[in-house]
Design brief:
With 265 residues, the chain is mainly alpha-helical. The chain has eleven helices and two strands; from the N terminus they run αααββαααααααα. It has a single domain (4-258), classed as Heme oxygenase-like (Heme Oxygenase, Chain A, Up-down Bundle), CATH 1.20.910. 74% of the residues lie in helices and 2% in strands. β1 and β2 form a beta hairpin. α1 runs parallel beside α11 and α7 runs antiparallel to α11.
């Protein structure tokens, strides 16, 4: 019987070729100006947002979030997911104020000069009660971002906690290459009043998500998959699909940068 650490290692080995495609993606070599960076952010913000949706869905499924309260699920898993939620939803910004990582990213977009029209349009439609699929179309979300979000909500809707946890853990983990951080640092030196919030976001993301939260998420996935081979196989297949969807998002952003279409109109 394989240990949990062996299972995690095997899964990581299975998905490594797709991770390499993402980390080595041509997109990063084409972000060399503030304008190109804002095109990236106008798309990437949807991945930041639906990451939070994936996380909160896990919290709803793995803990009790309604009244009357009842003990729900495994206590270790409850602890793990609640600690991750606290860090993602109530972290600190560059001034030490409490904020979610998503709200921090929106501030970074604003500082860089983006009006964040597309994501705000989506929120308006959702506030009007539209279903996510309808809202994505009405709000005129870029196709690559729309497909990415739709895939995430398909994962949320499949009601398989081990699959959702694996996609959360391995489909988003440690995908910011050093090269991109270096590019943002260089832009920050040239334009410190335009990019320093994004640089803080990236460094904070790496510090929190790339270390402590990754270990917690590994434990959560292992708890949910247990010793069930079929669950580990399902989890691995789902993570591969999630990474392929992320590659398609990166392809779409690269196309938008090379042939820019305004997202502000």
């Amino acid at each position: 019987m394989a240990s949990y650490s062996d299972r995690i290692t095997l899964l990581k080995n299975e998905i490594q070729p797709l991770r390499e495609q993402l980390i080595q993606h041509e997109l990063y070599k084409n972000i060399n100006s503030l304008e190109e960076l804002t095109v990236f952010m106008d798309h990437h913000v949807f991945a930041v947002w639906d990451f939070m949706s994936l996380l909160k869905s896990l919290q709803q499924k793995l803990t009790c979030t309604v009244t009357p309260w009842m003990p729900t699920g495994n206590s270790n898993t409850r602890y793990l997911i609640n600690e991750i939620v606290t860090g993602e939803e109530s972290d600190v910004d560059e001034a030490g104020n409490r904020t979610s990582h998503f709200e921090l990213y929106l501030r970074a977009m604003q500082q860089a000069g983006s009006q964040a029209v597309a994501i705000n349009n989506l929120f308006n439609e959702l506030n009007f009660g539209k279903h996510i699929d309808e809202a994505l179309i009405i709000a005129d979300i870029p196709l690559a971002a729309r497909n990415f979000v739709q895939h995430t909500f398909e994962v949320i809707g499949n009601n398989k906690n081990h699959v959702q946890a694996a996609v959360f853990t391995f489909g988003r983990e440690d995908l910011i290459p050093d090269m991109f951080v270096s590019i943002v640092k260089e832009l920050s030196q040239q334009l410190p009043d335009k990019v320093d919030i994004l640089l803080y976001y990236l460094e904070r993301h790496i510090e929190v998500d790339g270390d402590h939260h990754s270990r917690l998420a590994y434990q959560m996935t292992a708890e949910l998959c247990g010793d069930d081979d079929s669950k580990w196989h399902e989890a691995t297949a789902a993570v591969k699909e999630a990474l392929q969807t992320r590659i398609a998002l990166w392809d779409g952003i690269l196309t938008a940068i090379k042939a820019p279409v305004s997202l502000e109109g």
